[in-house]
Amino acid sequence: MSMYVPRLIESALNNSTKSALLLGPRQTGKSTLIGKLKPELTLNLADETLFVELSSDLQAFKDRVESRPYKTIFVDEIQRMPELLNLVQFYIDQRKGMRFYLTGSSARKLRRGGANLLPGRVINYFLGPLVAKEADYAFATMAVLNYGTLPEIYSIEDEKSRQSILRSYSVSYLKEEIQHEALVRNLPSFARFFHVACQSVGQLIDYTKIAKAAKVSRHSIPRFFEILEDTMVATRIYPFEPAIESADLIKHPRFFLFDNGVFNGLLGNFNASIDRRGPLMEQLVFNQIKDSCGALEKSFKASTFRTRGGLEIDFIFEVEGDTIAVEVKSSDNIQSEDLRGLKSFPNHYPRKHLSMVLHAGSREIKKEGIWCLPL
Q1: Which helix (H) or strand (E) holds 207?
Q2: What are the boundaries of each domain within the chain?
Q3: CATH fold for the domain made of 10-126
Q4: What is the per-residue pLDDT for 111?
Q5: Has this prediction a pTM greater than 0.85?
Q6: How many CA atoms lie within 13 A of 180 on its CB side?
């Protein structure tokens, strides 16, 4: 049996008197989390029988909601019926004290469906895979590089089970999220793109090369990336705006998947070997900081920094108004060459900021004035 790991966002949901819309990729534990809040009525739109019933007659939704004096109502997979949000707004406005918990895995389906996202009435939250604080900082670095931090994966120890679940993720994603919700007309083209794009994790994206490798129209590539982002399985990050001109930054974005285990499952390789460790480390650092900020309701932005002259910093993070330049290394053998980008950064961004190296070793050292810290 899987072990439940408490989530940081639970306290915010528990203490709020407002309704909540909780978005996040599939299998990050949204339904389990809301279930822990013990809603009085649960309507799971992944249940085809219920979905057909409510789709054919919205009165059926009202009948269920009004059958008893419910105070808390949970609607799972809300993106399958965006039109329900108008009724949710009606009840929030008319029935004081009635609270809705809504979960979904596709912001695209909600927006494209012309959904009323209930501004001011519902608080939006994001739930990603587990972050280090939720695991009491007990992550084993190699384990999370290999298998990621999806709650189910983290709570089971059998490696064959882990690999089987992670290998099936892309199939279920393509079938249930993309095909079922009709986000693309040509699923084989999107599937080829998805596989090719995953081989570009951590790199600067070249849309033309991806289109050629996937045998897909160049004009489809930006839209396909938008689908990955709107279904929350990937994120693109762009050049650090304050330094674009002064540093002559390369303007191509970089791309990261939301979880290392899912990424490795897509590629069929669960070995964080030396040649793969760099991109896996970068992806792990990016997701841990992004998802930690989401869980703690902190503002977050990540940017790239790579000049045409060859200077590079893996990430520029902006968190709650603070700017942090981060270089990620797969070993604690830090050389002067590894610090070139960080040391040159003040020339292009003279404002107050913090610079650091995060590495997979065990030593905490200060080299040439820059802290190099174990992950």
Answers
A1: helix 207-214
A2: 10-126, 132-374
A3: Rossmann fold (3.40.50)
A4: 67
A5: yes
A6: 18
